[in-house]
């Protein structure tokens, strides 16, 4: 048995994990108490990491050998690695020779390690001579990069997590931190408990779990952030709340900004943003550190922001306008103060550090700067780095769709789910002459478009480094050997490059002298090369080494080589905060105010498209769910997709909860159940970003397969950052008439669940609406080895599918045998089949539970049969009622109710929580403590605590009802 220190592969918090192994098997994962990012905490996703690396997942979901897909059909034919890489190198070289190097495009990922990123960047820009390499971080953090550079001079978040503990005001804009960065939010909760006077302002169109906990929620209209921030600065100027001494000593451009915000009066801001003038004044006063009389308090403001600011056609301006407020009030460079961008992916920062974006070069150098290009070319030993700007993510796929980019190499990302305007993206993947997908999981939507599939290592198998949101570099270490024939991403890129060198640089020394036979030595050599590129730059890490990281733990940059030797045993320590001296990395050492103006969203609401659709994260899922989607237990909190709208809009459009609707934009449509929610404002709607064609299917009116939520989103992007406006789409929502339904669920052997789900998912495009997800039993996380596993399929259409299709579904769910109970009414198009637990060849016993069912045509019995199956209660007492078309079970024989899980760690549902709260007296804090003591919910990872607090507030305490009645 062994324990390995490594890092979580999910969000940018960068949590340390301890991986426990027994031989070649992971037995558990724990938070690393010594890691400064999380101090032992993990969220629901991190806590279940080991369950994504089981033999069942490995055999069913992982890509384990190179495969050539002739005609891009089926799983493909196995290839030896040499043959696969020879084929790839030949195709790339031939295309580049015939059409030029810019006919090649590389699309990589913020989930790669820094070493992987570095080699890919060198391969594209140094060897092949194209800047067409971009990353899914373009969809995530490029507006933050552009905003920092436009104002502070460099892409460097100036604050750190410790500042949460020192801030007097937390200003959270465009981030549902409680769900997107749960472990950081645990620190926020801890800081607020320790300092009751700390204020929290949340700027978000939706009333999220984060907004629920705020002292002030500014529910602005989508896309109006710049107007809000400019209006706050207008008030600061009017009230005299700016730090004029700091502005004079450390900034430039303030006069132009003052002129810009002159017309951003409170009345105009209230009108555009849809908020109260009094709330605007309160937020401004708290941000500026003023008391009720406007007198300075010395208060410190830390702003935390994420995709709500970044994923916008004015994302750079939004970032810059918020940073303007920090510069105007001197709220930067001291504990508890500063503009802090929260990265979405585990190594978005590392990718930026090595120049993994189409407009960057190593060590934060700019591609457009000829001196920077010359420096990198000299360091790499190549004649030059091409000056032609590379195509960014949206541009890259548009060029491929138009035929200008003819080869696409995609590594560790899933653009056929995550990119906007999916019709264009999928046309690009279909039209490209050669598509390589380098992936750990072979089940992604993008894999279906590949000519060549290359198996890559993933979490618990990789070695290298990542950098989190606070500029902290952590080691990633392998706990297991690479499965099957999987290879490290940097190894694949290196071996490809060496083959290309034989054609492009014959007889010259290799540019890629990394030891691919020794993973640790090779990865360390790459990191050392990257380290040298940073010498003298803003992110100088020449004072660090892998030995330092191993000996002293994760470190922040900058951390330059010391001018004199440090005392023996004393660790090298990087900078926790930047700009403490008021000197910025600009030509004159001053920060620059950005005089930006508010612009409407790229696609405003209209009479034809009257709803503003926003997208965002679910608490327990990650991106396209290629990893989290292997775990049925992570679907317990939100088991199926939906579109949320305000109850007033449901009533106005005569819709009801759960009804299927078509959500349509100017680019495409998707069919979903509608759900009433007061978290969205009237005329607004919300769909979680994770639902792609792997889990959510259907077809359009013209018979084309639907591509999930990003079939709706626009390709419009910010001119400064090229980040697309994924956060806002104008849509219409209309009812659809799909009278024929399908509801199928089954418990299955764990080793079969993912295979069966994939087989069922192959049918998703056969219906107008379909969703297929795994699920799991109520076993708590600590006992997850005892959990049962299953698959759910829901579908609807205008008419019944062929009988052969229903037979195929029943066969996959183990219902095609004589022991199955069935009822068929061909005239009405109704069909039902059920399976009770029984030994092979034996009849079910009196206490047998329901193991599987298929309802076709009439599905009104689905909800109670679902509850019966999930409860694993005896089903025999229901007798003939199991096959009846009824919406509820017989009276007196109902199975235990099953509500969506609130606490995923211990699988505690909302029904159990509200029942417990109804018996609990006292104030909110006392009732929450009683709840946690009795049901233990919220006592593990803590991700559900914000939702628990909301349930506490919305559930009357014991005695309240009777007291009210007595009055």
TrEMBL record:
<dbReference type="InterPro" id="IPR041854">
    <property type="entry name" value="BFD-like_2Fe2S-bd_dom_sf"/>
</dbReference>
<keyword id="KW-0408">Iron</keyword>
<keyword id="KW-0411">Iron-sulfur</keyword>
<dbReference type="Pfam" id="PF00384">
    <property type="entry name" value="Molybdopterin"/>
</dbReference>
<keyword id="KW-0500">Molybdenum</keyword>
<comment type="similarity">
    <text>Belongs to the prokaryotic molybdopterin-containing oxidoreductase family. NasA/NapA/NarB subfamily.</text>
</comment>
<dbReference type="InterPro" id="IPR007419">
    <property type="entry name" value="BFD-like_2Fe2S-bd_dom"/>
</dbReference>
<dbReference type="InterPro" id="IPR009010">
    <property type="entry name" value="Asp_de-COase-like_dom_sf"/>
</dbReference>
<dbReference type="InterPro" id="IPR006963">
    <property type="entry name" value="Mopterin_OxRdtase_4Fe-4S_dom"/>
</dbReference>
<protein>
    <submittedName>
        <fullName>Nitrate reductase</fullName>
    </submittedName>
</protein>
<dbReference type="InterPro" id="IPR041957">
    <property type="entry name" value="CT_Nitrate-R-NapA-like"/>
</dbReference>
<keyword id="KW-0004">4Fe-4S</keyword>
<feature type="domain" description="4Fe-4S Mo/W bis-MGD-type">
    <location>
        <begin position="1"/>
        <end position="57"/>
    </location>
</feature>
<dbReference type="InterPro" id="IPR006655">
    <property type="entry name" value="Mopterin_OxRdtase_prok_CS"/>
</dbReference>
<dbReference type="Pfam" id="PF01568">
    <property type="entry name" value="Molydop_binding"/>
</dbReference>
<dbReference type="Pfam" id="PF04879">
    <property type="entry name" value="Molybdop_Fe4S4"/>
</dbReference>
<dbReference type="InterPro" id="IPR006657">
    <property type="entry name" value="MoPterin_dinucl-bd_dom"/>
</dbReference>
<keyword id="KW-0534">Nitrate assimilation</keyword>
<dbReference type="InterPro" id="IPR006656">
    <property type="entry name" value="Mopterin_OxRdtase"/>
</dbReference>
<dbReference type="Pfam" id="PF04324">
    <property type="entry name" value="Fer2_BFD"/>
</dbReference>
<keyword id="KW-0479">Metal-binding</keyword>
<dbReference type="InterPro" id="IPR050123">
    <property type="entry name" value="Prok_molybdopt-oxidoreductase"/>
</dbReference>
<keyword id="KW-0560">Oxidoreductase</keyword>
């Amino acid at each position: 048995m062994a324990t390995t220190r490594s890092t979580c592969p999910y969000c940018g918090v960068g949590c340390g994990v301890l991986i426990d192994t027994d031989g070649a098997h992971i037995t558990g994962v724990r938070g690393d108490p010594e890691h400064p990012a999380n101090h032992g905490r993990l969220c629901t996703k991190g806590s279940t990491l080991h369950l994504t690396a089981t033999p069942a997942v490995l055999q069913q979901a992982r890509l384990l050998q190179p495969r050539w897909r002739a005609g891009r059909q089926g799983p493909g034919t196995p290839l030896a690695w040499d043959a696969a890489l020879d084929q790839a190198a030949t195709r790339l070289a031939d295309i580049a020779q015939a059409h030029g190097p810019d006919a090649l495009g590389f699309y990589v990922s913020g989930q790669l390690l820094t070493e992987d990123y570095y080699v890919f960047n060198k391969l594209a820009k140094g060897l092949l001579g194209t800047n067409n390499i971009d990353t899914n971080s373009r969809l995530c953090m490029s507006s933050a990069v552009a905003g920092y550079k436009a104002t502070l001079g460099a892409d460097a978040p100036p604050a750190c997590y410790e500042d949460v503990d020192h801030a007097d005001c937390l200003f959270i804009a465009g981030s549902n931190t409680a769900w997107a960065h749960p472990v950081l939010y645990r620190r926020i909760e801890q800081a607020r408990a320790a300092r009751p006077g700390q204020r929290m302002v949340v700027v978000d169109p939706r009333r999220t779990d984060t907004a629920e906990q705020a002292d002030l929620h500014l529910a602005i209209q989508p896309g109006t952030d710049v107007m809000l921030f400019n209006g706050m600065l207008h008030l600061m100027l009017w009230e005299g709340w700016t730090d004029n001494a700091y502005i004079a000593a450390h900034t430039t451009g303030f006069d132009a900004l003052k002129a810009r915000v002159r017309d951003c009066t409170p009345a105009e801001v209230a009108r555009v943003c849809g908020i109260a003038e009094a709330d605007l004044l309160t937020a401004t006063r708290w941000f500026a550190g003023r008391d009720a009389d406007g007198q300075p308090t010395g208060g410190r403001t830390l702003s935390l922001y994420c995709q709500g600011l970044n994923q916008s056609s004015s994302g750079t301006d939004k970032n810059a306008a918020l940073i303007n407020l920090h510069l105007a009030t001197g709220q930067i460079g001291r504990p508890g103060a500063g503009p802090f961008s929260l990265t979405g992916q585990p190594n978005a920062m590392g990718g930026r550090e090595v120049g993994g974006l189409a407009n960057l070069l190593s060590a934060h150098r700019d591609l457009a700067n000829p001196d920077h290009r010359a420096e990198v070319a000299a360091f790499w030993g190549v004649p030059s780095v091409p000056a032609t700007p590379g195509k960014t993510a949206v541009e890259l796929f548009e060029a491929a769709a138009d035929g200008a980019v003819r080869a696409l190499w995609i590594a560790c990302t899933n653009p056929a789910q995550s990119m906007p305007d999916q019709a264009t993206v999928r046309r690009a993947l279909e039209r490209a002459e050669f598509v390589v997908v380098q992936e750990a999981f072979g089940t992604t939507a993008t894999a279906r478009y590949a000519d060549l599939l290359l198996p890559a290592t993933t979490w618990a198998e990789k070695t290298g480094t990542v950098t989190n949101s606070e500029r902290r570099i952590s080691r990633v270490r392998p706990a297991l050997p690479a499965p099957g024939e999987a290879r490290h991403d940097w190894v694949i890129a290196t071996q490809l490059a060496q083959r290309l060198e034989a054609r492009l640089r014959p007889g010259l020394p290799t540019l890629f002298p990394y030891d691919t036979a020794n993973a640790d030595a090779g990865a360390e050599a790459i990191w050392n090369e990257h380290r040298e590129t940073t010498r003298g730059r803003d992110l100088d890490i020449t004072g660090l080494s892998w030995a330092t990281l191993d000996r002293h733990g994760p470190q922040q940059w900058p951390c330059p080589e010391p001018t004199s030797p440090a005392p023996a045993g004393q660790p090298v320590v990087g900078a926790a905060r930047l700009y403490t001296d008021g000197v910025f990395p600009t030509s004159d050492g001053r920060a620059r105010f950005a005089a930006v103006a508010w612009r409407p969203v790229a696609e405003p609401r209209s009479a034809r498209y009257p709803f503003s659709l926003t997208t965002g994260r679910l608490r327990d899922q990650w991106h396209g769910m290629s990893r989290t989607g292997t775990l049925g237990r992570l679907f317990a909190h939100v088991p199926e997709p939906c579109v949320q709208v305000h109850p007033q809009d449901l009533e106005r459009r005569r819709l009801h909860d759960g009804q299927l609707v078509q959500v349509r934009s100017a680019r495409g449509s998707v069919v979903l159940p509608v759900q009433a929610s007061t978290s969205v404002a009237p005329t607004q709607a919300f769909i979680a970003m994770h639902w792609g064609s792997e889990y959510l299917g259907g077809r359009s009116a013209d018979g084309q397969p639907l591509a999930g939520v990003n079939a709706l989103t626009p390709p419009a992007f910010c001119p400064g950052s090229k980040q697309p406006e994924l956060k806002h789409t104008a849509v219409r929502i209309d009812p659809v008439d799909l009278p024929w339904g399908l509801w199928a669920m089954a418990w299955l052997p764990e080793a079969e669940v993912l295979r069966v789900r994939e087989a069922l998912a192959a049918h998703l495009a056969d219906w107008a609406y379909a969703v297929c997800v795994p699920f799991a039993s109520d076993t708590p996380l600590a006992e997850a080895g005892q959990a049962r596993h299953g698959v759910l399929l829901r579908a609807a259409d205008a008419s019944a599918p062929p009988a052969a299709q229903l037979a195929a579904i029943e066969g996959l769910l183990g219902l095609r045998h004589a022991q199955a109970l069935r009822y068929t009414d061909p005239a009405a198009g109704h069909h039902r089949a059920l399976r009770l637990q029984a030994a092979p060849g034996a009849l079910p016993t009196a206490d047998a539970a329901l193991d599987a069912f298929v309802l076709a045509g009439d599905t009104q019995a689905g909800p109670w049969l679902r509850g019966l199956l999930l409860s694993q209660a005896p089903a025999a007492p229901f007798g003939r009622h199991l096959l009846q078309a009824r919406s509820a079970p017989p009276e007196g024989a109902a199975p235990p109710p099953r509500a969506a899980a609130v606490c995923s760690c211990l699988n505690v549902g909302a029904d159990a929580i509200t029942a417990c709260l109804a018996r609990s007296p006292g104030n909110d804090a006392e009732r929450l403590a009683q709840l946690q003591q009795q049901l233990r919910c919220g006592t593990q990872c803590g991700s559900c605590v914000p939702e628990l607090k909301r349930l506490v507030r919305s559930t009357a305490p014991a005695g309240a009802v009777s007291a009210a009645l007595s009055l």
